[in-house]
Specification:
- By secondary structure, this protein is of the alpha+beta class.
- The chain is 33% helix and 13% strand.
- It has one domain.
- It is built from five helices and five strands, in the order αααβααββββ.
- A five-stranded mixed β-sheet has the order 2-1-3-4-5, with helices on one face.
- α1 crosses α3 and α1 runs parallel beside α5.
- The protein is globular.
- Bound molecules: FE2/S2 (inorganic) cluster.
Length: 173
């Protein structure tokens, strides 16, 4: 087993838990051993392609270099919770806390990629005109892909809705 894939990140059958590639990318980066060989080994241990693992690493880079005001939207919708979102988010927050990385986490109802969850989305904040400063990107754990939403014209009210938004309409959970 790869050093970047601790037993705690595998289920009882030894398969990596949802979100493990992103957690492993973080571990690799903070260990200072982020080499081509290690990436190959880690991707193989996770059962993902090298390209998929590189996508997780790139998403991690975007998270760790995000400016103040950026938010990590964590999906707490039914589909993502069913796929292990709570454990994934908790591990991700613990990893970030341990490495001193600060990024505001906001729980939201849905990130519109329900079949690919558990999902997290990086929002880099809004411009003065209230539009997204950069296209938001969503890390979809199941497919280990990053989906970029180029629709920067979408107003914030279009979602995703924070779960504690008092003005949001009721949502079925
Ligand atoms: S429930 Fe998470 S993306 Fe829809």
């Amino acid at each position: 087993m790869s050093e970047e894939l601790p037993e705690a990140w595998c289920d009882e059958e030894g398969r990596p838990v949802p979100g493990a590639p992103l957690l492993a990318a973080h571990r690799l980066r903070t260990s200072g051993r982020d080499t081509v060989e290690r990436r190959e080994e880690t991707a193989a241990a996770l059962g993902v392609s090298r390209g998929e693992f590189d996508a997780a690493c790139a998403f991690l880079d975007a998270m760790t270099s995000a400016p103040g005001g950026a938010e990590l939207k964590i999906c707490t919708g039914v589909s993502c919770r069913f796929e292990g979102a709570e454990a994934f988010h908790s591990r991700l927050k613990d990893a970030f806390a341990a490495s001193g990385t600060s990024l505001r986490c906001v729980a939201v109802h849905c990130l519109d990629h329900c079949l690919e969850g558990p999902n997290v989305r990086l929002d880099l904040g809004l411009t003065e005109s209230g539009r997204s400063a950069a296209p938001p990107q969503t890390f979809c754990s199941k497919s280990c892909q990053v989906v970029v939403d180029e629709r920067t014209w979408r107003p914030p009210e279009a979602g995703p809705r924070p779960v504690n938004d008092p003005d949001a309409p009721p949502v079925l959970t």
